[in-house]
Write a structure and sequence with these properties.
Order of helices and strands: HEEEHEEH
CATH topology: HIT family, subunit A
Strand content: 15-25%
Bound molecules: adenosine monophosphate, zinc ion
CATH class: Alpha Beta
Structural class: alpha+beta
Largest sheet: 5 strands, antiparallel
Distance between the termini: 33 Å
Helix content: 25-40%
Number of helices: 3
Radius of gyration: 14 Å
Length: 133
């Protein structure tokens, strides 16, 4: 979709801090993370939200979410994680390309759902570390 920022990330016309990619799915760090390692997992084919995503695509996507979450758990490492998926503006969805948030959690680190301005150098280093693990 031409005016979709996440489609542009898939095309490579907008940069991202990529942590995982296969032929159907892309995962990259959120630039305004709720916690260190906050990752978004998206399908490469555009669908606006959960209701517009077909069963097969959704199955592929959620399997990738689990795979990336398992990898983050050992690569970061983190102690737990939340999965968040917003549908519609009223639910806080700001980008209309379906995405699952993986929000890593750390013992004693709290569990808040609030964005923090990401430091680009730190995000780049973290993505590199996760990719290499
Ligand atoms: P949502 O509120 O569920 O639609 O989440 C959209 C998320 O996308 C927010 O957490 C943003 O920080 C994140 N985001 C927006 N643009 C980018 C980008 N270019 N790269 C990485 N994350 C982004
Ligand atoms: Zn899109």
């Amino acid at each position: 979709m031409s005016d979709c920022i996440f489609c542009k990330i898939v095309e490579g016309t907008i940069p991202s801090f990529k942590v995982y990619e296969d032929d159907k799915v892309l995962a990259y760090l959120d630039i305004n993370p709720f916690s260190p390692g906050h990752t978004l997992v998206i399908p490469k084919v555009h669908a606006a939200n959960l209701l517009e995503c077909g069963d097969e695509g959704l199955g592929t996507l959620i399997a990738a979410v689990r795979k990336v979450a398992a990898h983050l758990k050992t690569a970061l490492p983190c102690d737990g994680f939340n999965i968040l998926q917003n549908n519609g503006e009223a639910a806080g969805q700001t980008v209309r390309h379906i995405h699952f948030h993986i929000i890593p959690r750390y013992e004693g680190g709290g569990c808040e759902f609030a964005p923090h301005q990401g430091d680009m150098a730190e995000l780049a280093a973290l993505a590199e570390r996760v990719r290499m693990a």
